[in-house]
Amino acid sequence: MKKHVLIGISGGIAAYKSLTLIRSFVKNDYEVKVVATDHALEFVTPLTIETLSGNKLYNNMFQTGQERTTEHIALAQWADVFVVAPATANIIGKYAHGLADDALSTTLLAYKKILFMAPAMNDAMWDNEAVQANLKILQNRGVKILEPGSGFLACNSEGKGRMMEPEKIFEAIDNYLCGKNSGLRALVSAGGTQEPIDAVRYIGNRSSGLMGFCLAESLAQKGVQVDLISGPTSLTTHHPLIHRIDVQTAADMLQACQMVASQVDIIIMAAAVADYTPEHAVDYKVKKTDATWQIHLKPTEDILKTLSLHRANDRQIVVGFALETNDEKENAIKKLKTKQLDMIVLNSLNDKGAGFSTSTNKVLLIDKNEQVIDIPLQSKQAVAEEIVSQILKKINHHE
Ligand code: CTP
After folding, report:
1. Could you tell me which of 244, 188, 185, 178 has the C-alpha nearest to residue 216?
2. How many CB atoms lie within 10 A of CB 22?
3. Distant-in-sequence, close-in-space partners of 249: CB < 8 Å, separation ≥ 6
4. pLDDT tens for residues 185-230?
5. Which residues are registered as beta bridge partners of 361?
6. How far apart are CA 52 and CA 171, in angstroms?
7. Strand 297-299 and strand 185-190: pairing?
8. Taking the domain 4-178, which CATH number applies?
9. Range(s) of the chain covered by CATH 3.40.50.10300
10. What is the number of the ligand 1 atom nearest to the C-alpha of 300?
11. Are 28 and 178 in contact (CB under 8 A)?
């Protein structure tokens, strides 16, 4: 039997992309019905929606001569899954506060099953505190928010607020419903750690966390449940399959990783973990003097190595990163061997557009048989998708 998807369209320019979304579901054998706001119909016509979906559009609650006047209840019961795309700040706000004054908002309140929302709005509106608070309310109630932009903040810092591409929305919902890769779990570490010197100072590094967040997002897109263990960063993520754990120091990160490592199938250490930490941090602010200040550093534990050498089972895939400036490939292979990894992702700081503080990357992916895949310069999201597809290939083919 065909699955029933109800698509809610609210009034944003991204409404034109909802037409592609309707097509994706129809093409993949879903039965599609659409409920749209009046403002949505300023952007797309009822005729297009009805032609593509093959069903009557629901928009006017008070139309006379209809079969029934409780269409919103019937539709809510008919749907196996409901996705609002685009979801404007207005519909997000209305739904968060239980308001119902048109066909879409009323159907939303009558609906009880799994709900996805794909927000779309200008980046200033997205950043607005009220909008973010409303999104939190919805997330806490179990609504699956499909992160705008290229999947999460800053991948495309210009365009935060752009609706997730319709193909990706389809994929996220289809993966969710079909349970593809479901059951698979991953641990991804991201960002740089901060090692306190005193109450206000710390030793840090220039990692933005973006690569790790992109990896988490790509895995979640494929239906994998992710524990994202992140050093301090301003990046955000709303993907329903990502559980985020924030840490500060290398020792915190080690502890958090060890808590989840035995339960996951995939471990990706993308974090820039401090290799050294002050031997004696103090909990007050050290006063300035004219003398030099020597800080003694002690090595931190290599989290990647620890997790890799103590795997929960031999099916677990462990992937490390290497950031090199000289003899890159040789050094990366050395790390791959000594840490007994399945794969290593080599970033070269010598490459333009690669490494820290950029939104692009260019890497070599080397597996334990020393097979090398060259991933050319592109957005970190695209690089992450390629890495993830290689990892899933290994898992699914039991290589
Ligand atoms: N890593 C880790 N724990 C540490 C240091 C690094 O888990 N205390 C992980 C990183 O997350 C990364 C990999 O080890 O996946 C490689 O980090 P990198 O700094 O390139 O290499 P190191 O082994 O630390 O060696 P070096 O700094 O000398 O190159």
Report:
1. 188
2. 28
3. 193, 194, 195, 196, 274, 277
4. 999 999 999 999 999 999 999 999 999 999 999 999 898 999 999 9
5. 378
6. 19
7. unpaired
8. 3.40.50.1950
9. 185-396
10. 8
11. no
This prediction's pTM: 0.75
Is the distance from CB of 197 to CB of 277 less than 8 angstroms? no
| CATH architecture, domain 185-396 | 3-Layer(aba) Sandwich (3.40)
- Please provide residue 351's backbone torsions phi and psi, each rounded to the nearest 5 degrees: -85, 135
Q: What is the pLDDT at residue 375?
A: 94
Over residues 338-388, the pLDDT tens digits come to: 999 999 999 977 777 777 778 888 999 999 999 999 999 999 999 999 999
Q: In the annotation, is 257 catalytic?
A: no
CATH 3.40.50.1950 residue ranges for the chain: 4-178
**Order of strands across the sheet with 317-324?**
242-246, 225-230, 185-190, 266-269, 317-324, 343-348, 360-367, 372-379
Can the peptide bond before residue 86 be classed as cis, meaning omega within 30 degrees of 0?
Answer: yes
Pairwise CA distance, residues 183 & 267, whole Å:
15
Does 275 sit in the ligand 1 pocket, CB within 6 Å?
yes
Q: Establish whether residue 330 lines the binding site of ligand 1, counting it when its CB lies within 6 angstroms of any ligand atom.
A: no
| Residue of 268, 301, 321 best suited for mutating to test ligand 1, as the one with most atoms within 8 Å of CB | 321
> For residue 158, what pLDDT band results from cuts at 50, 70 and 90?
low
